[in-house]
Amino acid sequence: MSAGRPVRVLIVDDSALVRRVLTEALAGQGGIEVAGAAGDAQQARELIKRLDPDVITLDVEMPAMDGLTFLRNLMRLRPTPVVMVSSLTAHGADATLDALEIGAVDYLPKPKLGANAMLGEYAAALADRIRAAAKARIRPWRGADPAAPAAIAGTRAASGVAPTSRAMRRVIAIGASTGGTEAIKRVLAALPADSPGIVIAQHIPGAFSAAFARRLDASCALQVREATDGQPLLRGHALVAPGDRHLVLEREGARYVCRLGDGPAVNRHKPSIDVLFNSVACAAGRHASGALLTGMGKDGARGLRAMLDAGAATIAQDEATSVVWGMPGEAVAIGAAADVLPLGAIAARLRELQHA
Question: Looking at CB atoms within 10 Å, which of 38, 98, 341, 356 has the fewest?
Answer without folding.
Answer: 356
